[in-house]
Design a protein that fits this description.
Blueprint lengths: L1 H11 L5 H13 L4 E2 H8 L3 H13 L4 E5 L5 E5 L3 H22 L6 H30 L2 H7 L4
Antiparallel strand pairs: 1-3, 2-3
Helix pairs in contact: 1-2, 5-6
Amino acid sequence: MANTNTHMAVAARRGLDSTSSLILHEVYLAYPNEVTFKAIGKKLKIVEKTIQSSIRRINNYGVPIEYNTDKNKNKSLRANVKEPISWIFKEKIAAENMLTLLGELEVGSSEKCFSQKIINKRIYTEYLESLNELFDKWNSLRLFDKLEKHNVK
């Protein structure tokens, strides 16, 4: 069962390496509490340097996470309640980028390639339309605002 959960935790955060994904998973499981680097290292059997480099990758990837150092220089992480939603935003941006790339794709004179391009463009166009409808609905319900408002500090 733990192996399945590990795979799901990594797959849910597509685009990050598995160590960074597992760190985010551990931190999110502890929400709203902080998790020390020491506890993360012990649980995942990794050293602090690995945690530090993973945090840099997480930050570079634009994933919201809180990083703290106390007066004794103990480092800890705290999940941001918007982290799971950030992946939906990333998927939307990726789909927009793919649609742009598909529009720029030169397929030559092959009718089969042209047909495949049209099918891919249709799929991505409809996918984005659905995502945009969801974002409009979520915005009208102020769900993003409510997440921010109820974020435990």
